[in-house]
Amino acid sequence: MTYYDDIAEGYEELHREEQLKKIEIIKQYFKPKKEEKLLDVGCGSGISTENWNCKTYGIDPSEKLVQIAKQKGIECEVAKAENIPCEDHSFDYIISITAIQNFDNIEKGLQEIKRVGKENFVLTFLKRSPKREKIEQAIDKIFTIRKTIEEEKDIIIIV
Ligand SMILES: C[S@@+](CC[C@H](N)C(=O)[O-])C[C@H]1O[C@@H](n2cnc3c(N)ncnc32)[C@H](O)[C@@H]1O
Q1: Which of 29, 45, 108, 138 is a plausible cystine mate for 82, CB 3.0–4.6 Å?
Q2: Is the dihedral of CA 129, 132, 125, 149 positive or negative?
Q3: Which helix (H) or strand (E) element contains residue 9?
Q4: What DSSP element (H or E) covers 157?
Q5: Any bridge partners for residue 94, and if so which?
Q6: How many CB atoms lie within 10 A of CB 139?
Q7: What does the pLDDT average to over 56-80?
Q8: How far apart are CA 80 and CA 32, in angstroms?
Q9: Does the global pTM surpass 0.90?
Q10: Whose CA is nearest to atom 13 of ligand 1?
């Protein structure tokens, strides 16, 4: 049982609005085509997985949040970023929205994201996270940063 399982029932009420603001910004840079595949790492209840005009798939370790996402018709499964159950380079786009600060092993999670992706990634994490510097360094080490955007609550990095 994770922290996110505990708060799953109230998650959307608490966070939907702020998460949608981040997605709006990301959609200005990311415009996948209908036939392209997008993976959402740490998809939670699917707020960040919904309403993309392409094929989407999500993973998240919280069974309860994944159950909520499935009830909304989102294709997803219970899994962690550190061990993504997908083949190498199988997604055109990968997003991970406000989840990296929760990874057990940040470098391993980011390496896995790189392994299953191709060349379009957007990674966001909480500005106020005590792991902020560690996350920024790990992203810089593993990817080539194209753009950094400071949003109200998150740092949004496009790589
Ligand atoms: C703030 S929520 C964001 C959820 C979703 N991306 C959204 O925008 O609503 C953080 C998510 O990170 C997930 N998470 C925690 N540890 C993780 C890990 N090791 N790998 C992937 N996701 C993880 C949590 O279960 C939770 O759903």
Answers
A1: 108
A2: positive
A3: helix 8-29
A4: strand 154-158
A5: 39, 121
A6: 23
A7: 98
A8: 24
A9: yes
A10: 42
First CA to last CA distance, the chain? 32
Q: Ligand 1: which atom is nearest the Cα of residue 65? A: 27
Question: Of the candidates 67, 107, 69, 112, which has an alpha carbon nearest to the alpha carbon of residue 89?
Answer: 112
For the chain, which residues make up each domain, given as ranges?
3-158
Atom in ligand 1 nearest the alpha carbon of residue 19: 8
Mean pLDDT, rounded, for 106-116:
98
- Closest C-alpha to 121, from 88, 154, 158, 147: 158
The one-letter amino acid code at 14 reads L
In 28-146, the DSSP E strands lie at 37-41, 55-60, 76-78, 91-96, 117-126
Report d(CA 139, CA 137) in Å as an integer: 6
Residue nearest to atom 9 of ligand 1 (CA): 47
Fold of 3-158: Rossmann fold (3.40.50)
- pLDDT at 2 (0 to 100): 86
* Type of residue at 94: I
126 neighbors 98 (Cβ within 8 angstroms) = yes
By the 10 Å C-beta count (0-12 exposed, 13-18 middle, 19+ buried), 30 is classed as middle
